[in-house]
Amino acid sequence: MTIKDTAEEWEVRASDTPFVGNKTSVRTDDVVMPGGSVVHRDYQVHPGSVAVLALDDQGRVLVIRQYRHPVRQKLWEIPAGLLDVPGENPLHAAQRELYEEAHVKAEDWRVLTDVYTTPGGCDEAVRIFLARDLAEAEGRRFEVEDEEADMELARVPVADLVRGVLAGELHNNCLVVGVLSLVAAQNGDGLDALRPAEAAWPARPFEA
């Protein structure tokens, strides 16, 4: 038996968008169920995101601490951001986010994993990259504002992050998925066996 997600689309009889926000919206679809009944399904329409697990030559991960108002917490996270432009190359977006949030560049990029954050209520797809061979970026630092103006940066050993995840002390989904995927890759075929940075991403098609 092959364990693999597959594309499928059930019939939608009607669709409405009762709310449109700055970056996302809410859609209501009338979806035909296998038995023939029609049910309402509300979900957030999201442009997609990228995240970067930046691993330095000492085995530490670059993390940032940022206030997240919906959960009323300051969370430790890995650099991440929205795919603001339809069809935007996710690698370019990830490189931009690493520069803007940490003023860091990387020479080696690979796809660590792809996830849907909350597929029962949102269509957000996230591509998490592994970035290695890190160096300080050239030029001026990006001008931050709002929550980002209060960000803290740190480099934390992988083992400390794994401990924090399993202890229920770290909650950001990209950090949790990224760190555990990193350890799984290290203990499996190795980081060099990960997919190339320009690997196809059916959830958010792009041009190389």
Automatic annotation (TrEMBL):
GO biological processes: nucleoside phosphate metabolic process; ribose phosphate metabolic process
MF-aspect GO terms: hydrolase activity
Gene3D superfamilies xref list: Nucleoside Triphosphate Pyrophosphohydrolase
Entries under PROSITE patterns matching the protein: NUDIX
This protein's UniProt keywords: Hydrolase
Lineage top rank: taxon: Bacteria
One CC-aspect GO term: cytosol
Protein name: NUDIX hydrolase
